[in-house]
Specification:
This protein is mostly helical. It contains 3 helices and no strands. Helix 1 packs across helix 2. The longest helix is centred in the N-terminal third of the chain and has 51 residues. The model has no long low-confidence stretch (mean pLDDT about 80).
Length: about 110
Amino acid sequence: MTFSGFALLARRRAELIARSTAQRDALSAQCQSLGHMMSTLDQGFTLLQRIRNNPLMMAGLLVGLAIIKPRRLLPLLRTGLVAWQALRTVTPLLHGWLARKKPGAQ
C-alpha cells in the first residue's frame, strides 16, 4: 500500500472516531434526560404507594379532590386513562421484543 493509501485510511479512521465520539456524546445526553424522567416517574410511583398504604393520606387526597372543581380534573383523568391503556397494550409487546433480543434467546 502506498503512502497516500495509508494517509487515506488514517483520515478515514480519524473521521470515524470523531463520528463515534459525537454519537456517544449524543447518546449520553439522551440517557441523562431519560434518567431524569425515570427518576421523576419513580418518585411519583413512590408517592402513590405511600398514599395507597396510608388511609389518612388517601382521605386527605379525596378531600383535596372534592375541593378542586371536578371539571378541571376530568381532562387529567382522561389523559391518565389513555396513558394507562396504552401502557397496558405496549408492555406485553415490549417484553416479547426484549425477550427475542436477549443474547442466547432463540
